[in-house]
Specification:
The protein has about 110 residues and is mainly alpha-helical. It is built from six helices and no strands. The chain has a domain at about 5-65: 434 Repressor (Amino-terminal Domain) (Orthogonal Bundle), CATH 1.10.260. Helix content is about 60%, strand content about 0%. The longest helix has 20 residues, at about 5-20.
């Protein structure tokens, strides 16, 4: 994993840990509600990449943050730019419909 990706995961883990602490949820309670082990929660909060997406969703649900997943990749700006660039460009009409150039009239 590249350093920027590692930092993203570590930052996510820290935000989840802070969310748990703000809710005053003990580690044991969080683990029980999410159906995970203490070590798994520790790894998630440390930002380790080996945590499954399902585990992330369960912990976010326990924290009341599952709706935040709706925001991931919702505004795919790069994808829309690439898609727009692939669209055929419209041709401009040089003159009004039905009019001909002098060359076409002869």
């Amino acid at each position: 994993m590249f350093p920027p990706q590692r930092r993203l995961l570590e930052s996510l883990g820290e935000r989840l840990r802070l969310a748990r602490l703000r809710r005053e949820l003990a580690i044991d309670v969080t683990c029980e509600r999410a159906g995970i082990s203490r070590m798994t929660l520790y790894r998630l909060e440390a930002g380790q990449a080996a945590i499954s997406l399902g585990t992330l969703v369960r912990v976010m649900s326990v924290l009341g943050l599952e709706s935040d997943l709706e925001l991931v990749a919702r505004d795919d700006r790069l994808g829309r730019l690439l898609q727009d660039q692939a669209l055929p460009s419209r041709r401009r009409r040089g003159k009004a419909a039905g009019s001909r150039s002098p060359e076409e009239q002869s």
